[in-house]
Write a structure and sequence with these properties.
Strand content: 5-15%
Distance between the termini: 40 Å
Radius of gyration: 23 Å
Helix content: 25-40%
Structural class: alpha/beta
CATH architecture of the largest domain: 3-Layer(aba) Sandwich
CATH class of the largest domain: Alpha Beta
Strand order of the largest sheet: 1-3-2-4-14
Largest sheet: 5 strands, mixed
CATH superfamily of the largest domain: Periplasmic binding protein-like II
Number of helices: 18
Number of strands: 14
Shape: globular
Amino acid sequence: MKVRIPAALLSISVLLCLAVSCAGADNGTTDSLTTTLADENFDELKTADKEQSRQNYKDSLPQYLDFKGKEITVSVLDHDYYRVDWMAKSETGDIVNDALFRRNLTVSDRLNIDLNVISLYNTEAAGANACVASILAGDNAFDIMNVTAACFMNIVTQNVLSDLHKVPYIDLSKPWWNKTSLEVASFYGKSYVITGEIAFRYISGIAVIVFNKALEDAYGLDIYQDYFNGEWTLERLHKYSADAYSDLDGDSVRNNGDRFGFASDTIACADAYYMPLGIQITEIKDGIPVLTLNNERSSSALTDLHRFYWENQGTLILKDGVQTDGHYTLFKNGQALFNGAQLGNLYTTLRETDVEFGIVSYPKYDENQDVYHSHNRNGYSLYAVPVTCGDVDAAGAVLEAVAAENYRIVMPIYFDTSLKIKYSRDNETAQVLDIILAGVKCDFSFFTDIMYFNRSVLGASTFNFASLYASQESKYNAIISNAMKSFE
């Protein structure tokens, strides 16, 4: 495998403004998505998958694919979050890196392709702009493109991405793909990006709640029992947090010298509640996204959530975001029963803490919800095939083969070394991870500023759903309408 930067991409590195013209027609003619969007949902697929191990789960690729040594170039952002998906240059002794290196060799040998990975720019916008400029210029500089959710609409509205229904070998029935990510990125019958266990950033950005096991014992709680019994709800989190508050410094003032039930910010952690609480912000109807946020469930759930943040004595609103060390200071000091986090924090900011902790999903709104759902922040990785791809058959085969090998070999190693054994603190983590991964849901709003509605909800001490929604509705509908014009 080679890692280099083609001159074609270097030549457009200063072109950071997106062009407005169409890049060209779709490649290929075969509808390759083995299942349709009307088939069984992703949660059912994951549940069925438990009957066989990851290691022996077969993909649907033909046994003797041979692309005659063709070079397939993958463009990824020059940031550790995204580079890690592909850029293992050699075996180093690090177990995850070495698994990735062997995966790349396995895929290259199996398909007889030369896998070339290029990495430009360490910011999402600059990388997206440069790649779009390259596609519009017809450079054919890469065959597979790393896209982040936050930049997806700026890219897809330039008509530079292929319809994945015309990219062979992608089998959506397989458990390594997140089906809802494809559904919410499909407009007028065409689908443009896909994600799942092909991407570490997809995994590491999933929102979770960590809890202090010593405090759990001290308060006589059994959070895992609540969780596995389907009783982990917003109301229960509300009660546990209130009961856990203690004025440790005795000054009768709620401050950082006290013990809290829940500590979290109103930025990334605010975004994380939609899917778990069963709030659907948009829905794809007749091929386009439609705003569906304005309903009784959204109003009730967000009103109760606002009460939890602003009226619960056990809740402390943090100024530091989920990716900062300051976000976890109280938790590491044993002064918070619960803390909002992301899976990636288990092996970064929480890696060295002496606190014995467990992890659970964000809570359901009530016990009427059948399953737990999870949120993934809008920096998660998606993968697309540009309209300039020189061989869509090979690109589709590479995506499927890499995702399958990740599912079978790489992710189990990653989970075991980073989450389950080396850094996790209890035996239930494996079961919880299965539930969390199976429950990840996406929404079109994650591609736009619409997803930040809840930051406004939780960022102010007063809240009225009807008035806040009314103040934003026309803007949100305009965002959708303007985005869809490019597909008409």
